[in-house]
Amino acid sequence: MSARSFFLDTNALNYLAGLKGSDLQIFRKQIETSNSELSITHVQVDEAHKKELQTYQQKIKKALASLSNKGINVNLEGTKIVVFNVSRFDFARFGDEEIGKLYNELRKEIDGCEKAKGKTKPLLNIACDAVIAVSSLGHDFFITTDRCLYDSWRKIIGKHTTLEQQFKIPKIVYTRRSPKDVAGRILANIMASQLP
């Protein structure tokens, strides 16, 4: 079986932690037998830039602990770009000019998408989303439950064709917000990668 790497956005991580029963057993077995990996960045763990996000940060830590207790390992990675007020400087790499352009374009596109929906998302949250998206480079799949992040990634990544010289470009996968849907999309991509 071919190992696959799955990079999760914050909500995908939180929903996956709610997996239980036979769905959990099937998921854990497929992750183990396929040697697939799940990863997030430190950004998801560190998000605490608003008072209500302290509770959110606890939710993320609880999700990671829950998955660990269920026998599902999630790797914590550094970011592929350093952004002030977002990055842990000891856990981030300085991106080149192409990565910087990608980050800036994603940030602007995500902000525009949110505003078009009539939502106001704090700029720091948008910066975190863009850092997370850029950090998905090098993985096979980027799993997200955020429609603006999904749409922005699909629109912007095609403009940066030279990135393929440095990184594997992940397939971005949008999923509904439920444990079964997040797990199901991951499993479907594991199964599809095993087809001849």
Task: Write up this protein.
With 196 residues, this protein is of the alpha/beta class. It has one domain (5-193). It is 53% helix and 11% strand. The chain is built from eight helices and five strands; from the N terminus they run βααβααβααβαβα. It has helices spanning 10-16, 21-34, 42-46, 51-69, 97-116, 123-135, 147-157, 179-193, and strands at 5-8, 37-41, 74-77, 141-144, 171-174. A five-stranded parallel β-sheet has the order 3-2-1-4-5, with helices on both faces. α7 links the parallel β4 (141-144) and β5 (171-174). α1 packs across α4 (51-69). The chain is globular and about 40 Å long. 39% of the residues are buried. The mean pLDDT is 85.
Write the layout of secondary structure elements.
Elements: E1 5-8, H1 10-16, H2 21-34, E2 37-41, H3 42-46, H4 51-69, E3 74-77, H5 97-116, H6 123-135, E4 141-144, H7 147-157, E5 171-174, H8 179-193
Parallel strand pairs: 1-2, 1-4, 2-3, 4-5
In short, what is this structure?
The chain is an alpha/beta fold and 196 residues long.
